């Protein structure tokens, strides 16, 4: 969103006080916006406090401000946001910035002061702020900065924030890997736009802080949102971090609907409230009791209510104090538990044990269900809680036209010292309606990771549904054979706690190379994987040499068509029992151009009739790509596979469409170090 504000009718009056930001404005009729100039040494917080809706707070380019600056709730609206920008903003790159723009930026540096460590943070209900053309870093020494910009970590109601053309980095750069800042932005709220930024956050901490010569990595992320609820737009940024490009989920969201129960069994109950309940909804049930806590929150002795059994081991308990603990053992009325976080003072408490079931039908206020998944209901419950629709989820996340990079020198150094690799190019544990389109991924290998997580066993409504991956260019650098070589991990069911089944996954017109496999998958329904080109002949020491592997739960309503991919050693690998019909029941394979580069003896019928195009080649160079030297992976006019996909087009990617969606101009290139 763009905001144009006219300032021609304003007059600024500066005093001799270097901390003064007094503004006196002369306005023409209907013009209420002001420019508040803040020069080096002047009071930035005072300027922010003085700003009114529609104003611009303009910071002197090249000047620095150290501190933790608060963005108050000014009751602004879409038509009158407050902008904080550099005085050199008009001369910055129009679009994505880079470090070369920093001389024209004002610099805000986070310090650690008590509980505050963000350079900029939002107050409760803070909204309609635009941060434009700022350099955001830290001056925190060896103290950890949780996030350079804090937008709602511990306060409610934050919404409608724009962060654009900003340069985020840790204080040190180059080959000195001692760092303090972990994240660029942490956002918990509604409507964030994060665009045209440059983020460079690698991940070493100070070794002497963690035991002399030992090395400690920091879990760096450009953008984190644990609970949303969104929407979030991440558009046309350069993001170079080690751990995750962005991270969604990782914490349990609260239920918005509750009911007490009558005549409850393990298959039905009469609910006091049935709002939003429908067939297929996963419900969290509570087994309620009372107990005394002893031995520093490691032992509960039941005094009243439900009697837990060995079948309930592994479930999570919530005490009336708010503490969460995992049930690890049952011996009569004594329950051993593992505290999750804060240790509870010894004493008497009420508790709930959370278990799950899925709704099969509804009749008035009577709800019928069956025990479901990992935390399945074991005995008659006393109460129920649930979310429905968009509740409890991070909704409407769009990630497009970004460049995701992982610094190879740094990542390899971490591997050598700790045997660790990046967790993912991005990681998603909670999302509903996610679009990942037109992104370029380069640098050290880091797979896409979507793994729904009911993190503490209290939020079974968590899911990762309605996923679209389209027109992306995945090209990590060779020769990092120490990695697993996966393009993606789409493991759509939590193996530790119940999550809601994931649905509707579309993977279309993506290109990948320097990988050993396309997808490591589990569960989900409504899969469509079509018109992708995956050069999966990359030799790795520790990874799957397959096209796709499924582990755990079957994938339903699965369609795999019109792709170019290598069979490798095992093709479609079912880790359950080796049978396609077990892992992909009623799966559909059509018109795939399969390359037998591993010389596995592919006959062409391994994926059923019509699953593979005839004329199996042994090398990707033999199938007729347009121009391999210039990274053009559409098929040439001379290719024997032209127009042989199920829709009459060429199998594999539409190269022109993919390039049109990518950031920048021209064809993708193999060399990535000079890409900003």
Structural write-up:
The protein is mostly beta strands. The protein is globular and about 75 Å long. Mean pLDDT is 91; it is low at 1-21, 23-30, 206-212 and 671-676. The protein has 4 helices and 51 strands. The strands form 5 sheets. Strands 1-2-5-8-11-14-17-30-33-36-39-42-45-48 form a 14-stranded parallel beta sheet, with helices on one face. The protein has a 13-stranded parallel beta sheet with strand order 3-6-9-12-15-18-31-34-37-40-43-46-49, with no helix packed on it. It folds into 3 domains: 35-169, no CATH class; 257-386, Elongation Factor Tu (Ef-tu), domain 3, CATH 2.40.30; 424-661. It is 4% helix and 37% strand. A hairpin with a 4-residue loop joins strand 50 (625-627) and strand 51 (632-635).
Index terms:
single chain; 676 residues; mainly beta; Elongation Factor Tu (Ef-tu), domain 3; 3 domains; 14-stranded parallel sheet; 13-stranded parallel sheet; 51 strands; globular; disordered N terminus; disordered C terminus
| End-to-end gap | 24 Å
Oligomer: single chain
Average of pLDDT = 91
The gyration radius over C-alpha positions equals 27 Å
Derived from helix and strand composition plus strand pairing, the structural class reads: mainly beta
The best one-word shape is globular
Total number of distinct structural domains? 3
Largest sheet: 14 strands, parallel
Main sheet: strand order: 1-2-5-8-11-14-17-30-33-36-39-42-45-48
Strand content: 35-45%
Uncertain spans: 1-21, 23-30, 206-212, 671-676
Tell me how many strands there are: 51
Helix proportion of residues, in percent? under 10%
Q: What's the tally of helices?
A: 4
């Amino acid at each position: 969103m763009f905001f144009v504000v006219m300032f021609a009718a304003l007059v600024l009056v500066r005093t001799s006080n270097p901390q003064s930001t007094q503004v006196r404005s002369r306005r023409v009729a209907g013009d209420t916006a002001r420019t508040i100039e803040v020069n080096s040494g002047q009071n930035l917080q005072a300027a922010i406090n003085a700003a009114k809706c529609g104003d611009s707070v303009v910071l002197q380019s090249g000047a620095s401000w150290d501190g933790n600056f608060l963005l108050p709730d000014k009751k602004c609206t879409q038509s009158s946001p407050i902008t904080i920008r550099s005085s050199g903003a008009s001369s910055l790159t129009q679009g994505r910035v880079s470090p070369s723009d920093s001389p024209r930026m004002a610099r805000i540096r986070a310090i650690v002061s008590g509980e505050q460590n963000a350079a900029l943070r939002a107050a409760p209900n803070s909204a309609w702020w635009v941060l434009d053309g700022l350099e955001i870093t830290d001056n925190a020494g060896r103290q950890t900065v949780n996030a350079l910009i804090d937008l709602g970590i511990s306060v409610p109601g934050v919404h409608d924030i724009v962060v654009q053309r900003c340069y985020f980095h840790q204080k040190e750069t180059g080959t000195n890997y001692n760092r303090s800042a972990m994240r660029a932005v942490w956002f918990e709220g509604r409507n964030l736009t994060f665009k045209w930024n440059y983020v460079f956050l690698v991940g070493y901490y100070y070794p002497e802080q963690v035991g002399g010569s030992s090395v400690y990595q920091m879990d760096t992320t450009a953008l984190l949102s644990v609970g949303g609820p969104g929407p979030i737009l991440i558009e046309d940024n350069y993001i170079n971090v080690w751990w995750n490009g962005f991270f969604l989920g990782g914490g349990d969201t609260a239920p918005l609907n509750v009911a007490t129960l009558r005549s409850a069994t393990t298959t039905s109950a009469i609910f006091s409230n049935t709002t939003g309940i429908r067939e297929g909804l996963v419900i969290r049930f509570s087994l309620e009791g009372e107990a005394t806590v002893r031995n520093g929150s490691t032992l509960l002795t039941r005094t009243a209510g439900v009697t837990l059994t060995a079948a309930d081991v592994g479930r999570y308990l919530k005490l009336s104090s708010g503490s969460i603990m995992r049930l690890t053992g049952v011996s009569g009325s004594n329950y051993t538990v593992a505290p999750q976080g804060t240790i509870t003072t010894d004493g008497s408490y009420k508790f709930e044990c959370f278990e799950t079931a899925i709704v099969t039908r509804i009749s008035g206020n009577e709800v019928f269900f069956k025990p479901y998944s990992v935390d399945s209901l074991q005995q008659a419950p006393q109460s129920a809680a649930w979310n429905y629709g968009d509740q409890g989820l991070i909704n409407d996340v769009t990630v497009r036209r970004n460049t995701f990079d992982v610094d190879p020198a740094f990542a390899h150094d971490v591997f050598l010292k700790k045997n660790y690799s990046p967790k993912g190019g991005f990681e998603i544990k909670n999302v509903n309606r996610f679009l990942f389109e037109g992104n370029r991924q380069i640098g050290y290998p880091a797979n896409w990771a979507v793994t729904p997580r009911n993190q503490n066993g209290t939020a079974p409504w968590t899911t990762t549904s309605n996923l679209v991956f389209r027109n992306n260019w995945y090209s990590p650098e060779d020769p990092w054979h120490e990695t697993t070589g996966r393009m993606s991990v789409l493991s759509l069911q939590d193996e530790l706690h119940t999550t809601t089944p994931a649905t509707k996954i579309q993977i279309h017109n993506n290109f990948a190379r320097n990988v050993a496999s396309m997808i490591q998958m589990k569960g989900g329904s409504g899969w469509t994987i079509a018109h992708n080109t995956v050069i999966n002949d990359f030799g790795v020491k520790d990874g799957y040499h397959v096209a796709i592997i499924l582990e755990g739960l079957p994938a339903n309503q699965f369609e795999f068509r019109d792709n170019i991919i290598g069979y490798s050693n095992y093709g479609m690998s079912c880790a359950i029992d080796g049978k396609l019909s077990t892992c992909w029941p009623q799966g559909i394979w059509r018109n795939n151009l399969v390359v037998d580069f591993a010389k596995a003896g592919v006959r062409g019928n391994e994926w059923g009739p019509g699953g593979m195009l005839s004329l199996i080649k042994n090398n990707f160079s033999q199938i007729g790509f347009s121009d391999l030297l210039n990274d053009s992976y559409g098929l040439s006019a001379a290719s024997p596979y032209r127009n042989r996909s199920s829709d009459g087009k060429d199998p594999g990617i539409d190269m022109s469409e993919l390039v049109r969606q990518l950031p920048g101009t021209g064809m993708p290139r193999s060399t990535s170090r000079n890409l900003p």
